[in-house]
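Hey all, sorry for the wall of text incoming. These are the three entities for the joint prediction.
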Amino acid sequence: MAKYILKRLFQIILTLWIYLTIVFLLLYLQPGDITSFFINNRTPPEVREQIKAQFGLNKPIWEQYTNVMTNFVTLNLGVSFKEYPRPVWDIVTERMPRTALLFVTAAIISFCFGFILGRLIGWRRGAALEYVSTVSGVFLWTVFTPWFALLMIWLFAFNFQWFPLKGFIDQNLWPGVQQVADVSCDLTGGTNCANFVFNHILLTALVVTLILGAAFIISRFFAEQRTRWLINGSALAITVIGVFNYWSNSIGDVKVGGIFATRPLSMMDLAGDILYHMILPIITLTLISFAGTMLLTRNTMLESLREDYIMAARAKGLPDKAVRDRHAARNALLPVATYFVIGLALSVDGSIFIEKIFTWKGMGWTLLSSATDQDYPVIIGALVFTGIFALFAHLAADVLYALLDPRIRYD
Amino acid sequence: MQVTTKTLPPSLWRVRMHLWLKGMGQSWSTFRESPIGVTGLVIIVFFGLLGAFYPIYPWFMGKIAWDQETIQKEGIDLNIVYNPIFGVGNDPLLIKGFPQPPSLRHPLGTNADGPDVLAQIMYSASREFLLGMMAALITVIIGTFIGAVAAYYGGWIDTLFMRLADVFVLFPPIAFLVVVSALVQRAGIEMTHMLLALILGLLFGFGSITIVLKSQALTIKVKPYIEAARVAGGSSFHIIFAHIIPNILPLSFLYMMFNVTTAIFSEAALSFFGLLPSINMSWGLMLFRAHTQGWILGHQGAFYWWVWMPPGLAVTLLCSAFYLVGRGLDEIVNPRLRKR
Amino acid sequence: MALLEVKDLSMHYWTRKGEVKAVDEVGFSLEKGESLGLVGESGCGKTSMALTLLKLLPENAKILKGHIFFYKEFQPQTANALLGEMVNLVPQKANGRASTLGRLTRIEGEKLLVQPARNGATKAPSPVSFSFSEIAQVGLDLVPLREERMQRVRWKGISMIFQAAMNSWNPVYRVGDQILEAMQTHLPKTSVQQSKKRIAELFQMVGLDPRMMERYPHEYSGGMKQRAVIAMALSCDPELIIADEPTTALDVIVQDKILREMRQIQKQLHMSMIYISHDIAVIAEVSEKIGVMYGGKLVELADTQTIFERPAHPYTKALMSSFPNLKGEKKKLEALPGEPPDLISPPTGCRFHPRCPYATEVCKEKDPVLEVRQPGQVAACWNPLH
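and here's what came out:
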């Protein structure tokens, strides 16, 4: 396995190199020299010189190439035009976790939903349910995403006012926050405090996932169904209590003051506000992406139902549910799981429209905004980073496949 | 074997044609059984007719919604009134302000700038078709050719194209398109439908489609008739074009349907975010204007529905239609999905 | 004592091209501890027959008529489980009453009430009463049995060794766990430890290292998979095992060894078996009785000895002469001319007549029925050889 991962890692580095070269060529073939992407008329002269030295202007193409590549690999991606003088790398690291949380959550929900539904329509072939869910699934899958997102906002946020219209935090709540734990907030609506709270949400989600995942894997070593439930149940209880305790006591206090202060706030209130802003984008994302999993699961389910081991499982007198879930769906899961991880890899890509419409300032929003604002250093940085992210997700897909399918032993 | 070639009856092509027609007939009857594929086909035909109807739309409206006297008296040019880009003309109705709700003269109303919404939808329909088909055709031609060649020759050609496909599969396509259109704009090049189709075609042509078609071509390559053709002295060129490619074409056609969906969607999305300033009319652009001018979220209720509902539905329906046809074809091409 | 009785069983498939008459009016019975071989060309309905017995049919298949009685000795305490099902009650021999087929409607004290089937009569026949002491055996009819109830018969009552043993293992689970799954479904009271011990015993019995339980199917060779399949078929102590081409995919030496072991286990555990194969030589080695199928019909059924010495049906003879005989005198192998019948539109009359060297006019017109040729031999032929 280790050997295989190393081999894949080598392939990935090679692929990344080709990818970055294509990005370089894309820039090089443009009119003007390559530094013009990193300099505009607002750039001060001394910085101008520095950037020119960094990217090696007026040097032969291969030297420019090595310079640009070195800068890409060391993530030295220049300085944003629009948010001058913020380094691109800083912007990317701020935005990436936001995209990750939103999209991983939505992806997991839509995966579960799509898989369960696909399993059902694959099993009960030819029922009215199949036709209805295929047509509505295809409709949602190919719906014009920005338009659909606007409809969702219009319906749920504008008409019913169940959810906030857009954004990441409530603009009436956060300006009153002066200090969160030991971070004192900046004056413009508490962006750094919001980031602090957000990063802790992300951390919590990660820890919870790890604990529950570990409990699930440990429970697999026991054959008795009751032991499995006991392990999983107690792990769930422990995490719920732990998370509650951590957020109510351990992180720190919120200091509210100044003219914007409306009411005393706890850490949970702030986290709740961020989570509240996530609900509508997640619902929208789930609706537009579950059908992909559903349609694929249906097909893989139909294929695995034709296998001889399904007949064997039925002959064993297993109940239908066991045949469907333990045998057919378990094998149908293999390609679907890969699809899921590759979907995650391209989540930045899929995030572009949704983030823009919901003004969720993640990577997708950043990429599209910088494209319309012609903020080239950020565009290129985002593209480079997206590529790197996608590559590692592909590696994860391979590892996951190996874990799910005992036939594959990478050596 | 050469002798056989010479003694082949001249009607060989007729036999092939007959077999091909027979195969098509069988495929069609299988296709017709899936309500999903037929639903898609009906929608495609609907939009096709809509696009075809566009040139006679002003004339037709003149017949049913205008009386000739008014036209004569006021000197109205219907071609201007129903122009999808400039619109208005001197239609007396429209002086009352925009957007006009649906009426007999404007079945889907007008947008905020004056042009007739239905005219815009019809005008764009044919362009969306053209773009989708062009892009998908380029993708499929590249994919089929590379797939067949890589499978037939193997070796370094295979390795080269498959590694390349791996890179393209990793490409975040929308991000890439956004960046490319920003760059094209910066370079001062006009991004026409054709150029966009070319970019889309190339972007998707080297990716996953080559991998799929190559593995299909590999299963054909090991069939006995390929061996027979080689023994009979068929050249590589002949084997690839006369035996391998015709056999992977059904699968290519299937992927073409999915690629049409992607291409139409991409164009609409880029237009919607204002990244294709050179394309002066498309469904995405209609939505872009409706959104930025505040007709979707700015007003209570669905009051101005005719401004944003038709283009949104049009993009969605046409994309869905090609996808549905693809799914329907899947049941033919992939017998494992077929009902017994 | 009978274990399984198949009566007048027909099962057809509905396909695009038409109705496939895969099993047509087949009947036979099987005693406890006995083994029966079903033989015929591919496509003659043998496998369909096996799948029908377990009711493992695809959606487009339907059992049109007939009965499959699965007999058990009558035990008063288990009578409740049969309530509401179609049963065939067989009285004690000394009793002199006829066996009765009907729905078991009520249990009153020491009596069973059976409502016989209407069978076309306008008036429903009156219920028949049997006292517990009168009944020898109860045959549960599997044909009208509900799916959930049928699941309890599968593997516990009738298990199966599949034609494609290679692929009948789910690749993602350990072999031991897949056997365990069946045992936990049917023997819920047995603990996991006990079941695992039992699986280890079975592995030894079929000649596998018990440690292989913890391995995945892809780590097994073909022969090992086949042995493991046999172990799985034995795991719930079934009364009947259907072996569908159990050794076709293996090489001859392994084939022979496995067959011999199966025969031994069968005798040891006193189980009944149905062997299905296209190879009459294989069947002859392991079965006491042989049934020959042609075009979805059973054309001859006889003791192994009889069928080899005096085959009655021309098809049986043709089948035997198309395989070499190691022990007998040298002779030329004869291939049967013609194609197996198309089961969508089978030939009129006797389905074998287009290929039969002895066919006469009557063969083209009338379908022969099974008739007794001599004790222990029945055949359906207008011009039998003996």
